[in-house]
Amino acid sequence: MSKALVIFSGGQDSTTCLYWAKQRFDDVFALTFDYGQRHNIELKSAEKIAQLAGIKQEVLNLGPIFKGLSPLTDLSRDVEKYDDVSALPSGLADTFVPGRNILFLTLAANRAYVLGCDSLVIGVAQQDYGGYPDCREDFITKMESAMASGLDSDLKILAPLMHMTKENTVTLAQSLPGCMEALAFSTTCYNGAPPCGSCNSCLLRAKGFAQAGVSDPLLERLGQVAAEVG
Ligand code: ZN
To answer: How far away, in angstroms, is 176 Cα from ligand 1 center?
Structure first.
């Protein structure tokens, strides 16, 4: 029986990975990290989506382990806002949380081992990700190799979005049963909810849906809620 553990934040990419894994594995688990992130509303998104998907979820509370530097973990700093996607700076974005994916994969390796999973799934991608070095294929390949050595197992790290653009990711989500409905509850915005529309993450999400020619189910749902309240 094939089993996968998905590192699951409740955002667009990890939600797509969760449904991708659901199609490919006999059994899927979700692992979510609470690290004092600014956008901690994503923890509620993760819980809701795991329920919708019918997937067993574990939340690990890491406390303020990544404090400092990134506005995602230093609430005294503001998240940069931009007029549009063309205004996003190149190079490493200031939202980078150093060591985050190194630690996430390390902790996930323990849970995968305990649960008897053969694969870890993570929603990283090389393009459109603020230049984060821990989202690159080179890092993932080396982590997989380090884990094989440290665990004496052949645990695989699968990154199905690695070479995809945001547009490709939306198209993939459309092909996965239930995924678009789940994306209506995902959180991508670095400022939490409702989405600010002008942070790095909101702009890239909007670009992907626009290029795929699909309306974002999250914005549709929020529009409906607003209409019902109004
Ligand atoms: Zn935003």
So the answer is: 25
Instruction: Identify which of 120, 100, 135 has the alpha carbon closest to the alpha carbon of residue 4.
Output: 120
Nearest to 75 by CA among 36, 45, 131: 36
The DSSP string of 86-111 is GGPPSSS-TT--TTHHHHHHHHHHHH
For residue 181, what pLDDT is reported?
Answer: 98
Give residue 118 CA to ligand 1 midpoint distance, Å.
35
Measured in Å, residue 19 CA sits from the centre of ligand 1 at 24
3-229, superfamily in CATH?
Answer: HUPs (3.40.50.620)
Dump pLDDT digits (tens) for 22-34: 999 999 999 999 9
pLDDT digits (tens, 9 = 90+) for 96-121: 889 999 999 999 999 999 999 999 99
Q: What spacing in Å lies between the alpha carbon of 54 and ligand 1's midpoint?
A: 28
